[in-house]
Amino acid sequence: MRIRYRPLGLLLAGLAIAGLSALSAVTPAHAQEQKSATTVRPEIGKPIQAALDLLKSKRGKDALVKVREAEAVPDKTAYETYLVGLVHGQAAAAAGDASTAAHAFETIAASPAAPAGERLQFLAVAAGQYYAAKDYGKAAELATRYFKGGGSDKSVRTVYVQALYLSNDFAHAAKELLVDVQAEEQAGTAPAEDQLQLLANAYLKQRDNAGYADTMEKLVRFHPKRDYWLAVVYSVSTRAGFAERLALDLARLKLATGTLRTAAEYLEAAQLSLQTGFPAEAKKIVDEGYTAGLLGKGADAERHKRLKDMATKNLAEDKKTLGQDDAQVAALKEGTALLNTGFNYVLFGRADKGLALMEQGMRKGGLKRVDDARLHLGYAYHLAGQNQKAIQTFKTVHGTDGTAALARLWVIHLARTA
Question: What integer pLDDT is reported at residue 34 of this predicted model?
Fold first, then answer.
């Protein structure tokens, strides 16, 4: 499932003005106060002063006209060239000509007349303007130079990684984004939603299913929206090696996260629960399907009713026989039957007895699939309202057949309420 992210767009389109607001006060009068190497001749100073006045009035295109008058003056000194280039960049940015602005700021960043403490800022502005002009390769190049020079502005970092992505360098973009995400996690800060969306898409573009799945897990952990849960559950269930026998376990997670979406999904989940011998669970699933307005209507309404009647009948029969086989089950050498019997008690609302039986079954051992058992015990703790124990149990699931993936998602889901 492909997810959306909000692109940077023209976030830094105005950086040339905002970032250099202090420099926009440069005037010929100010320049004349400097040493002789930084003086400005009147034939350059007058149009530059006029351009600055026009910029204050937000008349960028008119300011460009005045800048070009100054540019036409021959034999400019290094300082005059720098000053003209600076105002040219500001005027072009104000006029919406990002490409011209970018080139101007890139040029003055290398000028020997540019103040040493401001050259990095010019590179940052140039990167932003190249991004605004959709020249993503140049934006990434200038941002790289900015960081190599010691820059640390987060806005430039954003330009950099998105420029990598938009220039189709997905592997590099993913690598850089992951560095940022991991740094934020280590600092105890939730990575931004847009940042994780971009990382997920960078993995998708490379068909890196493992990276995509890991990032989707981060999205549901830090920004638990239904669309993300839909995507991450789908990703887990379609991953190579996901065992078919976990279909009911998958449905249980979907039910908990509100991602059972269709009548067919509710029907399948209820039927699987009946087949496994848990009519109490099947009845609950059917009832929730009716409450959601997905069952009991349309061409299959009669089929839905038959399933509901079957679940109700089986539930009544199960109530009559509940507990009759407890002694026989306890005498068995291995613990599978104890686990199933205990789980059924939990479904009937008798959590104390049910969990005790399940724990006894785990201790007895002899289980064919230990990770399945741990997954079911964790789910039973959750149904009993003991989410901390559920989380602890889910963390012990290590199977590579989908059990551990489901357990991790349960931990993420329950961690917000435990």
Answer: 44
